[in-house]
């Protein structure tokens, strides 16, 4: 038995193809991104080693600073919106008829491609024939905004479809976590005289802490990686007002052909994502693990 | 329940109103999309947004399907998605089997290598991947897409399979090995069939990710013939910015397969997304 299940040739046969694939497609490129970041390179001509020059430029690049600011703004807004999702999940997980159907309806936008969502919301925001301004006009608003062309409101306008797309996803995760809490705990608290609010704050939220932590990481890291929707809807415009880190990297690489500089941005993005993941988990580390049995 | 006070009932009524309003907000844009996909421009601009025209213009769908390259993009999306899902599921099952059932020292390390892959942003790999594929003459080849989809979906797929494999009883393989069953036979005729239900869940999650993927196809593929639906739709809409009916029909075609699968398999999808929630 032991011999059969620890045959090195068989283990290699089962593991190596996948391992080589992710080393080749994920890990080697990550190392290369760091390496290219030290180069001046247009993607075609030979590379020139310039050390940390790209990173120095990065620190002084106001356009990059803005894109980073926008990314972090999205991260903060996404994290704040988690509390609303939790509230909805708390209500849904109570004795609500149709909870199952509702959370499925909430989830639908999450299943669609960001490109389709972006194209749909471009039409919703269309200044003259979009559904949003049609409603505003019906309500008597005379000067309807041009949502995506106005630098002051473009970020807010972009955040709405992001909320729309991911709401169901987070509600689903919270709902699943809350449903996992043994009902005996909640009944015991109720017998002890706790009301619904106390049960939510003292029992349900603490027991969902681990899941909340995961969703905060997802919301923050996910926000730092936003690309498809912004690329299609505004391409960072007007005049950089909605540029985020990923879209800035993409345009530096595939529009300006500044592959070295774009790689430095890509490597920076990787470090920020890893540090954020590690930091949030560290900050919110709980000493006791909860076990129900 | 019958003993609820009036106040509690009013409270519940309010909760339902809020929950229902949220559901309407989630659905309304899609209903509006369906409606304008059945109109011509004159109707889009003159009728109220949530009114249907006297005659539903299903020909919008036929027209975009026949005129643009939508049918080509659609077929590409289907086969690239299917091929990547099959490859991912097979490879991930191999790895998960080796990690959970076979005995070797490096197994925790290898699992770690796959799990760290969950945290790596696609964008940070894009430039080297592009240049590697270019050197190997794999840009403008479906291989670049299928390999990327498979590699980036392996970690999440392994994560979904892992818990299920760990819960399989060890007696199964002990009995099989006692009977002189080879590892390959044990895997293919005993273990793989036992994991069918979790494979379906993992496959659906993979399918949704691959069907909707944009940045790899947009970067690696420039031939129109090889584009998938997400990138194709983007280009198509870019060229015909003024024909709302055509745009609506194109978008509806691109989202219909996922919506149909959702109506049929919504419980599985819900379960799969909850299981795979670590990937953002």
How would you sum up this structure in a few lines?
The complex is a heterodimer of chains A (293) and B (280). By secondary structure, chain A is mostly helical. Helix content of chain A is 70%, strand content 1%.
Question: What can you see in these coordinates?
Answer:
The complex is a heterodimer of chains A (about 290) and B (about 280). Chain A has a single domain, classed as MetI-like (MetI-like fold), CATH 1.10.3720.10. Helices cover about 70% and strands about 0% of the residues of chain A. Chain A is built from 14 helices and 2 strands, in the order ααββαααααααααααα. A two-stranded antiparallel sheet of chain A has the order 1-2. The longest helix of chain A has about 30 residues. Chain A is globular. Helices cover about 75% and strands about 0% of the residues of chain B. Chain B is built from 13 helices and no strands. The longest helix of chain B has about 30 residues. The mean pLDDT of chain B is about 90. The chains are: A mainly alpha (about 290), B mainly alpha (about 280). At the A-B interface, helix 1, helix 2, helix 4, helix 5 and helix 6 of A face helix 1, helix 4, helix 5, helix 6 and helix 7 of B.
